[in-house]
Amino acid sequence: MDVRKKLEILADAAKYDASCSSSGGQRKAAKEGLGSVEGMGICHSYTPDGRCVSLLKILLTNFCIYDCQYCINRISSDTARARFTPEEVVRLTLDFYKRNYIEGLFLSSGVIKSPDYTMEQLVEVARTLREVHQFQGYIHLKAVPGASKELIDAAGRHADRLSANIELPTETDLRKLAPEKSFAVTGETMKEISTRVAQSKAEREESPKAPRFAPAGQSTQMIVGATPTPDAAILDTASRLYSRFKLKRVYYSAYSPIPLVDARLPAKAPPLVREHRLYQADWLLRFYGFRVDELAPPEHPDLSLEMDPKLAWALRRREAFPVDVNRAPRERLLRVPGMGVRTVDRLIRIRRWHRITLADLARLRVPLTRVKPFIVTADHRPTGLLDSHRLAERVTPPATQLSLFTAAHEARTGEL
């Protein structure tokens, strides 16, 4: 099989891996090297509509020894198979870079022979690019769960980011659909990466010349909708991963039905808006001080598809409002629907000099219709709005097709 045909198969197979993040790299351009993670391109590899660009995103192979029922590349699948050699991936990366098609490489793989054998192949690609060709562009490698510490260490020395995918949100889900995998094994790999990242940072504080280890950290991916697991359990798993392993991102990938599907899997994909709501809730957990049980309490274990999770929380907790924007602390302001991190920080700076009015909020492009029922300003106090049975209808935007620009705007501004 020629390289072109392999690329067609393995680039298409890589589309199911959503953890394609390329921000956070700090590698400096070398005078004699190729590529850079600085300036325009790889450091800003998301277009305004949210697409990740400038990375050659492929699998080393879609052969796999595992039989994960949700995966099109499982051993029992009849999908077309292909396999690159490490040398072919290196040559493709360099050729694509020299043609200005890409600024880096995202390399994943099915597991062939064993986790260690697969990891050796991935590391060889990154090592050859860095040491032989002096490639200084961004490299994201999959960390194969169960691979040895020595191989994980080697991968982190050459890659900007590593990711070990947790796959499904609970151990029960894994036992049902991917019995050859386990949280314990993936957790050990994540722990090793986290430990080495922290160790590298400490070493570089003592000596800037100390080698880096995965300077952009690690990420993971969970498939959403392959099992009946509610959003509360998904977010609880994500929250624990952030806390234990200091992950940069958890990516949520809506389950995509595949040919010859297992009877235990749903015949239809979950609505994409569910994936969107999970990303919004994830943002609230990381940057707004929310807890999982606030966003998805036992009586409402799934996030609302009709409204964002912060607004849904506010409507359930009307007694927490209104909030005085001239007096409230930052943590309370962050809970007002329609106010993001940047807006709140600007308000706190402004109110040191004069009292905030609705006109100030309008100049900051705050959606007044949405926030007015929940706030007090120097010239506004809500009268009866919080007690209105039509409040949800008043503050919920009309249903529209999601804009391709929405996710990118929220990721860039944090406005929720």
Descriptive account of the structure:
By secondary structure, this protein is α/β, with parallel strands linked by helices. Helices cover 39% and strands 8% of the residues. The protein contains 16 helices and eight strands. The strands form two sheets. A six-stranded parallel β-sheet has the order 1-2-3-4-5-6. A two-stranded parallel ribbon has the order 7-8.
- The order of strands across the largest sheet is 1-2-3-4-5-6
Q: How much of the polypeptide forms β-strand, as a percent range?
A: 5-15%
What's the total helix number?
Answer: 16
Distance between the termini: 49 Å
**Into which percent range does the helicity of residues fall?**
25-40%
Count of strand segments: 8
Low-confidence stretches: 36-53
Key features of this structure:
two-stranded parallel sheet; 416 residues; 8 strands; 6-stranded parallel sheet
Describe the structure in brief.
The protein has helices at residues 3-13, 86-98, 115-132, 149-158, 171-177, 183-206, 231-245, 272-287, 292-295, 309-316, 330-333, 341-350, 358-363, 368-371, 391-395, 406-413, and strands at 55-59, 104-108, 138-142, 161-163, 218-224, 249-254, 323-324, 375-376. By secondary structure, the chain is an alpha/beta fold.
Protein topology:
Layout (H helix, E strand, L loop, with lengths): L2 H11 L41 E5 L26 H13 L5 E5 L6 H18 L5 E5 L6 H10 L2 E3 L7 H7 L5 H24 L11 E7 L6 H15 L3 E6 L17 H16 L4 H4 L13 H8 L6 E2 L5 H4 L7 H10 L7 H6 L4 H4 L3 E2 L14 H5 L10 H8 L3
Helix pairs in contact: 2-3, 3-4, 4-6, 7-8
